[in-house]
Amino acid sequence: MKFGINSLAWQSPVTEIDRLLRLAKQYGCDVFELALEDFATLNPDEISKAVEDTGVEIKTVTGIHGPTRDISADEADIREMGVQYAKDMVDFAVEIGAEVIAGPIYSAVGKARQQTPEEIELKWKYGVENMKVIADYGAKKNIKFAVETLNRFETDFINIVEQGCEYLRRINYDNVGFLLDTFHMGIEEASMPAAIRKAGTEFKIFDFHLCANNRGTPGKDNTDWIAVRDAIRAVGYDDYGIIESFTPDCVEIAKAASVWRPFSESPEAIARDGIPFLKKLFAE
Description:
Layout: E1 2-6, H1 17-26, E2 31-36, H2 44-54, E3 60-63, H3 76-96, E4 100-103, H4 117-139, E5 144-148, H5 161-171, E6 176-181, H6 182-188, H7 192-202, E7 205-209, H8 225-234, E8 240-243, H9 267-283
Parallel strand pairs: 1-2, 1-8, 2-3, 3-4, 4-5, 5-6, 6-7, 7-8
Helix pairs in contact: 1-2, 3-4, 5-7, 7-8
């Protein structure tokens, strides 16, 4: 397992990739997960050079799905923008050598409302149809997608692994699997270890967020980390373990993710203390 941190913990949008990767290296990260919030602030050549200079890999990227990047929206023009954003992520991932695009690709973060059965059916229809278009586009460029389940306060679509499994069944593309996040699972799943085992047994896990229950530092929270580790091992997953936290500067989804305060004594402390904790945990 390679361990790292998501860029959203330190800067949003990313404008200083060299500094961030040097920080990641300083705090023991093997990998760095890049949030593709604003393509205008990201230069593929600068990213590739920073990766080469530091040796910190970027193999996973995450989408930042605001209200205009929603593939299951009621409005056709918004659905089209969501699909185009996903395709742009694919092209960018190819340019920087990333392998996995992760996140709640099926909807906008923060869209949570009461719905009629007809509205729910239509949401699933749009979400599945457009994800198939995205999956096909990514498959031709050897890009995988990791679909993330989110807690009920951040989405009304896919909250638990069981719903995620149904979504992946309907999509039925080999390059579409799960991103599991311990923060969201800690809120929604009756048993986080059981959910991990179900996801990893029925489908592929392409990314894993090892997040504190309060979005702060793993190991300084109330998560049963031994049970999480044992469940991950049981399904044979050993790719990427990423700490995801948020700076309050994340304009695109700060409100949707309820980012109102710092989650640690400093943004750097989350990696400084969290990465050694996770490496020790998985070495035992």
